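ARCHIVE CARD
Drawer: 12
Card no.: 0347
Subject: one protein chain, sequence and derived structure
Cross-reference: see card 0346
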Amino acid sequence: MNLNAWNEIMSALSERDVSTAVDAASKLHTNASTEDIPRLLSLLESADFFIREAAAWPLAELAGTSVLPQLLTAYQRGFDEGHDNDGFTAALLEIPALFGSQAKRSIATLAGTSEGTMKDNALWLLEFCEEEGEAKE
């Protein structure tokens, strides 16, 4: 995404008007590309939980398992701040849905090598993984 489009979306994401911010989050999700991954990762560090959630969707789809530690750190921050993280949860669930057995292996590795809330959140996400050919009940 070119810098002008990025800056326009970032400005709208910070608006107090809810529908403007929601439209901006939708544009970010639709227009972000792999070249935007570094900028999206920086949004996970925002003090604004809505901006973190907005970045989670395209990151989950574009970068998948490669950014799980950063996503799960930002996810836990939302809980620590008292947010329900519904949007973030939905974004994280895209990873097992999109990346299948690769996601299961990566998440299992993260769960096995992490501690504390990172491990807890990885174990939770692992529950939504399935092997190819395996049906969820």
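Annotation on reverse: The chain has one domain: 3-126. Residues 53 and 87 are 6 Å apart (CA to CA).
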